[in-house]
Design goal:
By secondary structure, this protein is mainly α. Helices cover 57% and strands 8% of the residues. Strand 1 and strand 2 form a beta hairpin.
Length: 333
């Protein structure tokens, strides 16, 4: 038996994808424990006066610790095992990152708005304006920041280094399926969960993964993730089963059948959202925009860190010509 082949891929002469992911997760865990302990000590005491378990305080500590841990562990693994630049993680502040991020936020709002509009038009939702005061604005600002942290942390966790390494190892179909199942399982303990809610969160994971493949970065799925969650909060609809404990500009009461509205789990547990998600998945998968699946750009062929790193790639895909910048994924039409 060739013991080396258990550890190294003979084609690329690199550590196999599974071992790279295990090493990444080990580094991630060590960094997360260190940072979560640090943030628990340095955060202002008035955020959690009783020093007891508090959902929002715990989530704040989690996000503040996991985001830098995911970035640092991802960059470390990219350089050590993949010999890829840090910017290939997908959160570089270069190129059209801001426009992709804002597009994602707007798209998230539109998808939730479309779902609520369908329910309202069918007499299955009552939406009442409650007004905006100073206190509500402050709460909304804090909630938006919180949702941005959640969007960034979850996309780095489920579509970051581990997912990207799976892409290079087993291809997009299995990678998307596996990561979306894990993404849904991570929400299975949420309050009032259901089989349809689990299925819809799986579909959300598929959509986020496809957006990464078509945009070449994480900013579009991060924006959509944050915009989706914030739109639910804005209209006072439960976010993946969690009820909104404070006033928001709108108050929404879902009156239709649970199968359509999602009931206590919120819109994400209903068929209406299933239809919207399937429509978006079809649009992203088959739309004539973004980076082509056929190019398999995520494999980063022939890339090495060093002064001789190529600055652009050329692809011919279905008789169309694409010129790419290595770090920006710019596409010349």
């Amino acid at each position: 038996m060739n013991w080396r082949s258990i550890w190294y891929d003979p084609k690329s002469n690199r550590l196999r994808s599974g071992w790279r992911i295990i090493a990444f997760l080990g580094m991630l865990l060590a960094l997360f424990i260190l940072l979560s302990t640090l943030f628990s000590e340095v955060l202002p005491p008035n955020l959690n006066p009783g020093k007891t378990s508090n959902l929002y305080y715990d989530m704040l500590v989690w996000n503040l610790a996991i985001i830098p841990a995911l970035i640092a562990a991802g960059i470390w693994a990219l350089k050590v095992f993949d010999r890829l630049p840090a910017r290939s993680l997908g959160i570089s502040f270069e190129g059209p990152w801001l426009s992709r991020f804002l597009l994602g936020i707007v798209a998230g709002f539109l998808m939730i708005g479309a779902s609520l509009t369908l329910l309202w038009a069918g007499g299955m939702a009552v939406i009442r304006w409650q007004g905006i005061g100073k206190e509500v604005l402050l709460v909304l600002g804090a909630a938006l920041l919180f949702m941005l942290l959640i969007g960034l942390s979850e996309e780095l966790l489920f579509r970051g280094y581990a997912f990207q390494t799976l892409l290079r190892g087993i291809g997009p179909l299995l990678s998307i399926s596996l990561s979306s199942v894990v993404f849904a399982l991570a929400h299975i303990s949420n309050p009032n969960t259901s089989l349809l809610g689990f299925t819809n969160i799986f579909l959300v994971g598929v959509l986020f993964s496809l957006l990464y493949l078509r945009s070449g970065s994480l900013w579009l799925p991060v924006g959509l993730h944050a915009g989706w969650n914030f739109a639910l909060l804005f209209f006072h609809v439960p976010v993946s089963g969690f009820a909104i404990p404070f006033s928001t500009p709108f108050l929404t009461v879902l009156t239709g059948h649970r199968l359509l509205t999602g009931g206590s789990f919120g819109l994400e547990g209903g068929v209406i959202v299933s239809i919207v998600l399937l429509g978006m998945i079809a649009l992203v998968a088959h739309g004539r925009f973004g980076l082509p699946f056929q190019s398999r750009w995520w494999e980063w062929p022939g890339v090495a860190i060093g002064p001789d790193m190529p600055q652009n790639w050329d692809f011919s895909v279905n008789a169309r010509y694409y010129q790419w910048k290595l770090l920006g994924h710019d596409q010349g039409e």
